Amino acid sequence: MPSPTEIMRPTDTVSWKSGLATIKRVTALAWRTPGMVIIAIGSTIIASGLQLLVPLLLGRAVDQTQTLVSDPANAEAATSALWATAWLVLGVWIARGTFTVFQNYFSESVGHNVGYSLRLAYYEKIQRLSFGFHDRMHSGDLITLGMLDLEAVRMFFSTGLIRIVLLSMLIGIGGYLLLSTDLVLGLLALSFVPFVAWRSSVTQLKLRGTWLELQNRLSVLSRVMEENLGGIRVVRAFAAKPHEMAKYAVASESALELAHERVDIRVRNTSMMTFSFLVAMGLVLWIGGGKVMADEITVGTLASFLTFMTILQMPVRQLGMLVNSFARTATCGERVFALLDLDLAITDAAGAQDVEISEGVLRFDNVGFTYPGASKSTLKGVSFTAKRGETIGLIGPPGSGKSTIAHLIPRFYDVTEGAITIDGQDIRDVTLASLRHAVVAVQQDAFLFTTSLENNIAYGDPWAPPSQIADASASAQLHQFIATLPAGYETVVGERGASLSGGQRQRMTIARTLMLRPSVLIFDDSTAAVDAGTEQRIRTTIQAQASERVTIIVAHRLNSLMHADRILFVEDGQIVEQGSHAELLALGGRYRALHDLQIRPEEPTP
C-alpha cells in the first residue's frame, strides 16, 4: 500500500495494467447512472451521423445550382429541388444541434455525478484516516489532490468515453465515404490525418507531463499562501513581508515559467497541424479541380470533399486530446484511488461492540509505542491504573511521551506493544464512536470553527439545550465573558478563533469537551495560555466533578497538576517516578528537581 509521499508524488508514467484498471473503475462509476450514459452515447451517435449528412447535402446543392445555371429550361424543377435541399440542410443542422445539446448535457451530468461520488468518498476517507497519516501529509497536498486530480477524473466521461464514440463515427464513417467516392481524392483528403494525429498526441502528452509538473508547482504555491495566511500575525509581528513576498514570488515565477512553456508547445504544434491541413486541402483543390474539368467528378462532389475535410479537421486534432484524457485519467485516477484504497490504521475490529462503562477503571498494561516511520520507540513498558474519581498527572521533559500517552487512550494511534483497557475491555475491541464518546481529550491546539460560540461549544452535541451549553461555559470560566458580548452565544468567531485570545480559545475547547461528560477526561497541556487565577477556578470546578470520571492532566507547569491524586514523571518514554505531590517531593528525585526549578527558581537546585 502506498505511503502518503508516494500518493502525492507527481508522475507521468503508469503501467498499462494499473492504468487500464483505473480507467475501468472510472467507467464503472459512470455506469452508476445508466440512463444518462445511454442518452449521452445515443445522442452522440445521432448527432455525428447527422453531421456526416451535411457534406453530402451541400455537394448536392452545388450540383443543383450548377444545373440551374446551365439548363434554364428546367429552372423551375431545379429551383424546387434546391429549396428542398436547403430546407433539408436546415433541418439536419437543427436536429444535429438538438442532439448535441443532449450529448453535452447528459455527458456533463454523468461526469458531475462521478465527481459527486468521488468527492464524498474522498472526504469521508480523509475523516477516517489516522493521525499518523495526517502527521506525514500536508493539508495543501490533500486539497490539491481532492480538487485538481479529482476534477481530471470527473471529466473523463465527456472528454474520453464520449469522444471515442464521436471520433469513431466522424473519422471512421467519414473516411469510408471519402475513399468510396474517389480513392485518389480520398487519400489526399485524409493525408493530413496521420501527421495531425501524431503531432496532436505528442503535443497532448507533452502538455500532460508539464501539467503534472505545473500542478506540483501550484501545490507549492498554495502551500506557501496557506502557511502565510495561517501565520499572518507572526509575519506582521516580525515585519517579514519582504521575505514572504520573495518566497511567494519564487514559487509564482516557477509556475509562470512552466505556463509559458505550455503555451509555446501548444502554439507551435497547432501551427504545424494547421499547415498540414491547408497543404492537404490545396492538393485536393488542385487534383480535384482537374478531375472536375475532365468531367470525372462534379463540382458538388469536390465541394463535399472540402466540407468533409473541414469537418474532420477538429476530430482528428481531438485524437491527441483523447490520448491525453486517457493518460491524465489513468495518472490522476491512480492517485485518487490510491488514497481511497488506503487501509485504515485505526478502525473498528470485526464484531466490535460499544464500550460498556461500569467501574470506570483505565489501565495501561506494559504499553509500548513507536510512531510510523520512526526508528526509536516513543513509549516503553508504560503501566499504570486509574480509577473513577482519580486525577492522574503526567509531567516530564519535552518529547518524553506525555502527549503520546494521552493520544493512545482515545485511539488516535494504536499501541504497538501491550494493551490499554477500560473496565477490562481492550480499547481495540470496542467501537471507535463509543470509545471517543467515553474518552475525550482537550487538545493543545485550541482549534475553533468559523461559526458562532454556541456552535463551537456544542460541536460534540449539536442538539444540546442552551442550559447545558451555559453550564459547560461556566465550568470553563467563559460564561461571564460571553455574556458581555452584544450577540452573546451567537457571536461568530473569526477563522480558527482568531478574534479570541489564546486563553479564551483554550477555555472554549475545555467547554466543548465538558459538554460530553466523558468517563475519561484528558487535558493535554490545555491551560497553558490561561492565567493562574482562571486556571485555579477551572481546576476547582473540574475537581468538583472529578468523582464521575478518570481525569488525566498533561502539563509542563507543576501548578497545573500538584493537586492530582497521583503524578507520573515520564522520561524517555518510561515512567521513572510516581506518587502524590508530597511523596515525590520527599523522594528527592527528578520531580523534586523540577519543582525547585519552577516553584523556587531563586534557590539552587539540590
Task: Please characterize this protein's 3D structure.
The chain has 21 helices and ten strands. The chain has 606 residues and is α/β, with parallel strands linked by helices. The chain has two domains: 4-340, ABC transporter type 1, transmembrane domain (ABC transporter transmembrane region fold, Up-down Bundle), CATH 1.20.1560; 362-599, Rossmann fold, CATH 3.40.50. Helix 4 (75-128) packs antiparallel against helix 6, helix 7 (156-181) packs antiparallel against helix 8 and helix 9 (192-230) runs parallel beside helix 12.
Structure described in brief:
The protein is α/β, with parallel strands linked by helices and 606 residues long. It is 63% helix and 9% strand.
Which strands sit side by side, in order, in the main sheet? 6-7-8-3-9-10
Overall structural domain count: 2
**What is the CATH superfamily of the largest domain?**
ABC transporter type 1, transmembrane domain
The CATH architecture of the largest domain can be named as Up-down Bundle
The helix content, as a percent range, equals 55-70%
The overall pLDDT, averaged over residues, is 82
Name of the CATH class of the largest domain: Mainly Alpha
Distance between the termini: 53 Å
**Main sheet: strands, sense, barrel:** 6 strands, mixed
**Count of individual beta strands:** 10
How many H/I helical runs? 21
Strand content: 5-15%
CATH topology of the largest domain: ABC transporter transmembrane region fold
